[in-house]
Amino acid sequence: MTGSSPQPEGGLTAAELVAIRADFPVLGRRLAGGHRLVYLDTAATAQRPRVVEDAMRDFAENRNAGVHRGAHQLAAEATEAYEDARTKIAAFLGAAPWELVFTSGTTGAINLLVASLTAAAGGRAEGAARRFALLPGDRIVVTQAEHHSNLVPWQRLAAVTGAQLAYLRVDAEGRVRTDDLADAVTPRTRLVAFTHASNVSGAITDVATVVRAAQAVGALTVLDAAQSAPHLPFDFGALGVDFAAVSAHKMLGPNGIGALLGRSELLEVMPPGFTGGSMVEIVTMSEATFQPPPTRFEAGTGPVAQAIGWAAAVGYLAALGMDRIAAHERALTARLLDQLGALAGVRVLGPTAARGRTGAVALDIAGVHPHDAGQFLDDFGLAVRVGHHCAQPIHRAFGVTASTRASLGLYNTAAEIDRFVEVLSQVRGYFGVVR
Q: Which residues are catalytic?
């Protein structure tokens, strides 16, 4: 993926972009009506390059076996491939291998953490693990910008433990209001869970400010990085959070796998939330002891092929460079926002400048339901997301119940942005909305 074309503002060259798009066969599809697919739904699921499918196929055809069990050659090779994938993914995310717990995705990672805290609250925590035991009157802080996966589990934990649930509001652009921290984060706050980047507004949260407020009262911090790790340089250690959750399918990888990242000193004392095979040391009829992390938190058979595919995906991203990918997507976002500003009756639910945001751009189209807008766009080959995007509270903060979202990825082009805006400009007229 090299070329002699000039590099636009530190992003990807035109020749590189041509080569990149060739790595994603689906981008060459023509849909009903003969329109070429314009994929603008990366915030939901990113497309996968051939190298990901190739890596998974190679494993399935040559090394498929159970990991961490069995003494035969195939099992040894599968285990080596699985742990090698863990090492590569952890390095890409700025974590040590033992700080990365494989899960089913971001949702699975957050629920695993909640299950561990529930286990601690149930009286099974001793010594240092008592740090994870919430008591009645303790406080959990979230934000109004959260995906339901980083809200509903904490609601349940609060209900089970008697803890209070408080939240930080968003401003008119959908940014988390860090000036709410002084009131929300009290001496009884035990945990602050917040998004790194909203899947609706695209706004990037001021992580350092939130972390400082939480650390001042000894609270744990949990970062939902599902929308940041695929689009920005991400360094778990440098961010200073205690835990972070990511999904592979947002970052060119396969479905069904993600990770909980946790600081090693916390994982070493945190009780397991899920139990079963693989994560145990000694089991008798009355008790069990558990493996060190990360194995302690990986009950059952692991997602081996998916981990190998995910490692191929992060290798692909790393070869291009996350700084350059971010610059490319930022330029496209700026182009999109600039053109949207000229459309009557179209409101951006989020920052209207590309700085400090990702390429997830949700729109309120006056007089047109998002599902109708989405269907109209689909008729022209434009794939966008419609609905509340599993984030109802932030939509309510914007005064709407749903939106039409275009979200960008590294494989999108300026021509696709122009095509999207061209078709979008016809939506209100088609539905007879007065301009």
A: 390
Which is it for the CA torsion 81, 86, 92, 96, positive or negative? negative
Taking only the tens place, the pLDDT of each residue in 364-412 is 999 999 999 999 999 999 999 999 999 999 999 999 999 999 999 999 9
Into which CATH architecture does domain 8-47+321-430 fall? Answer: Alpha-Beta Complex (3.90)
The answer to whether residue 7 scores a pLDDT higher than 50 is: no
- pTM tops 0.90, yes or no: yes
Q: H or E stretch including 101?
A: strand 100-103
Q: Which of 198, 229, 193, 207 is nearest to 105 (CA)?
A: 229
Q: In terms of Cα–Cα distance, which of 106, 140, 110, 264 is closest to 214?
A: 140
- Measuring CA to CA, which residue among 101, 19, 12, 59 is closest to residue 312? 59
What would the two tokens of residue 289 be?
Answer: 């002891």
CATH label, 54-317, candidates 3.30.420.360, 3.40.640.10, 3.90.440.10, 3.40.50.360: 3.40.640.10
As a whole-number percent, the residues of the chain with pLDDT over 90 amount to 92
